[in-house]
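ingest -> validate -> predict -> emit
validate: passed (alphabet ok, no gaps, 233 aa)
predict: started
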Amino acid sequence: MRGISSMATRQVLAELADAAVAAGFPRVEIESVGGVTAANRVAEGEAFDLVLLASGALAKLAAAGHVLADSVVPLVLSQVAVAVPSGSDATAEKPVGAAFEDAAGVRAALRAARAIGYSTGPSGDALVRMIAEWGLTEEVGDRLVQARAGVPVAKLLADGEVDLGFQQLSELVGQEGVRILGVMPDDCAIDTVFSGAVAAASQDAVAAEVLAFFASDAAAPIKQAHNFTLPQH
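emit:
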């Protein structure tokens, strides 16, 4: 059984796949690539059984008939966090609370930063839109550094390429050379729900059962251990 996912969920999905095998299901070999690349490959007809992407991307694939619309189920909710270089090789720990009291603190940090790292995909797009809505594009736009394919924002921070970074919390925790300030404050939070669906081309009748396991209460502790929260179904 084959699956494809975006990079943001690769670690949690690998552990969920192991747990599914332990529960008696067949193994799903999940390939994790950039979200846009994954969606394009599915749309171009490459054969997969499960597709695990941001909900918006899955909705488009469902509308086009590439995944079964009635199989789409939310799996995890990912929060964007704010981080800075730590100045050491220590690994980043999960923070408590928000990085700033409110959106005004985020705006001040953006204005003060030398270079601002952000990721590809829906969370990065949301940050760029937010900056535009705040009227800051002209002021900070030339300091925005989008992480290259396969390069996490944490590496940009650790290497000193940027001094302020925005990425999903699950991608920052445990990375060397990074200090996580916290998640985005409530009044400007950037949250992404990642969902799963059965590919329309799948011939494996067990695919839906494996996906149901990924969405079950039994899988919740694994998701929380990887710094995701549980979405509302």
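The first strand starts at residue 2 and ends at 6.
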